[in-house]
Design brief:
alpha/beta; Rossmann fold; 6 helices; tRNA-binding; Peptidyl-tRNA hydrolase; Pept_tRNA_hydro; Pept_tRNA_hydro_CS
Length: 187
């Protein structure tokens, strides 16, 4: 069983914000296969589907970003899931819009959702896809920036990064080792 988790904030108010790009990747994957995240448990919305003979969970924590780890931990415990079978997708200020970066482990980089995930998993060693949203300009506070929507000029780049992230997840689901997927998508 494998799981792909997209981090974000629940509700219409946050739907199109930069902080919800992890949710957007989950929605892209679900749309590709007509999967419906119609189950509610683990403080999140999820689906359990089959992909090439293996069970796959898509999870969108509904805890709000800063408590994402609670949902991930609850899902892992329920399914007795191994850490190596999980990818966490989230927004990254240090990458420009359109860029993605896959990593096998790492720190939180100031991202509270990732910090909480590390706290609840007890390790920094989990697969992740960081989706670039860029840094705020004009002294906009980071909180206002991540909770703001993408400007028109970034929309195409963001769509491309969402598609690339979903493509990378698909390759991993098809059995390609994550290191190979990382080498492909980080170039």
């Amino acid at each position: 069983m494998k799981c792909i988790v997209g981090l974000g904030n629940p509700g219409k108010k946050y739907e199109k914000t930069r902080h919800n790009v992890g949710f957007m990747v989950i929605d892209e994957l679900a749309n590709r296969y007509n999967w419906n995240l119609n189950k509610s448990k683990f403080k999140g919305n999820f689906c359990v589907e089959h992909f090439e003979g293996e069970k796959v969970v898509l999870l969108k924590p509904e805890t709000f970003m800063n408590l994402s780890g609670e949902s991930i931990r609850a899902m892992m415990d329920f399914y007795n899931m191994e850490l190596e079978n999980i990818i966490v997708i989230y927004d990254d200020l240090d990458l420009s819009p359109g860029k993605i970066r896959l990593r096998q482990k790492g720190g939180h980089g100031g991202h509270n959702g990732v910090r909480n995930t590390i706290d609840h998993l007890g390790t920094k060693d989990f697969k992740r896809i960081r989706v670039g949203i860029g840094r705020p300009k004009f002294n906009i506070p980071v909180v206002d920036f991540v909770l703001g929507e993408f400007p028109k000029e970034d929309e195409e780049a963001i769509k491309a990064s969402i598609h690339k992230s979903a493509d990378a997840c698909e390759e991993w689901l098809k059995g390609k080792p994550f290191l190979e997927v990382m080498n492909t998508y980080n170039n």
